[in-house]
Design brief:
- This protein starts with 7 loop residues before the first helix and ends with a helix.
- Helix content is about 10%, strand content about 40%.
- By secondary structure, it is mainly beta.
- It folds into 2 domains: about 10-125, Beta Barrel (Thrombin, subunit H), CATH 2.40.10; about 130-245, Beta Barrel (Thrombin, subunit H).
């Protein structure tokens, strides 16, 4: 079998299925990061609650909300193979297993779920504290949103790359929250996608105004996608990497 070459971010986004009593409700996207307490799954809060962030109404037409997540992980030392693991969303006392932002709490549409089922799993982690080369990313610059629109997988369980553009000043908080806007034709299932600035190599513009030569692809992690500002718009919300790092730093 011929060897294949994959862009690392293609395997870093993980397909997830929200379930209740073992029955699927919806699908989404997540990725892994390391906390002081060990590896955690980062995804949107509305994915784990099964409720709309603003109205708190159930997102499923059935009215059901999830009690566990099925995660399609990469198999250990078997690039291009995957396996399914199930993580509970509630403990035996009915308390939530996920951890919310230490300051924003439920206002932040992202959470960390400690991973407990990791036998034969290979983890490819994003590190929001060290997101990658400080490439120039300003208004109208190209971004990639890597996830699973409508539950689609790009061969095996590889993430689908959607192209977007920075739609607000990345260093300015939108709506007084640690978010920025992107212009991207994203759809259901991409909630929880990683958002990165991916450059194929060569001379790359840097944030300090200069440029740097790279012999191969480089990427910078920018944040987590959490949905469109309204159903009629292609403008989407991305929670910043620095806010995710605040959450990770709060976990012991």
């Amino acid at each position: 079998m011929p060897s294949i070459h994959l862009a690392q971010p293609s395997v870093m986004s993980l397909f997830i299925q929200m379930r209740t009593s073992g029955q699927p409700l919806a699908s989404g996207t997540a990725f892994v990061a390391m906390s002081n307490g060990g590896p955690v799954l980062i995804t949107n809060r509305h994915n784990v609650t099964g409720r709309h962030q603003e109205t708190d109404q159930p997102l499923s037409r059935t009215g059901g909300v999830p009690d566990d997540l099925m995660i399609v992980h990469n198999r250990h030392d078997r690039l291009g193979q995957w396996l399914m693991k199930v993580e509970p969303l509630y403990d035996q006392g009915g308390g939530s297993c996920w951890i919310e932002h230490p300051i924003l709490g439920a206002k932040a549409d992202f959470v960390a779920l400690p991973l407990t089922q990791l036998d034969d799993v290979q983890l490819y982690c994003y590190d929001p504290a060290n997101p990658g080369p400080n490439v120039l990313v300003g208004p109208a610059d190209i971004l990639s949103v890597i996830g699973f629109p409508f539950g689609m997988q790009a061969g095996g369980s590889l993430g689908v790359w959607a192209t977007g553009f920075m739609a607000s000043e990345p260093d300015v908080d939108y709506n007084d929250l640690p978010v920025f806007l992107i212009d991207c034709r994203s759809r259901q299932g991409q909630s929880g996608s990683s958002v990165i600035a991916y450059r194929s190599g060569g001379m790359v513009g840097m944030a300090d105004g200069g440029s740097a030569a790279f012999s191969g692809p480089v990427f910078r992690f920018l944040g987590i996608y959490s949905g469109r500002i309204n159903p009629e718009s292609d403008l989407g919300i991305v929670w910043k990497a620095a806010a995710i790092q605040q959450l990770l730093s709060s976990i012991s």
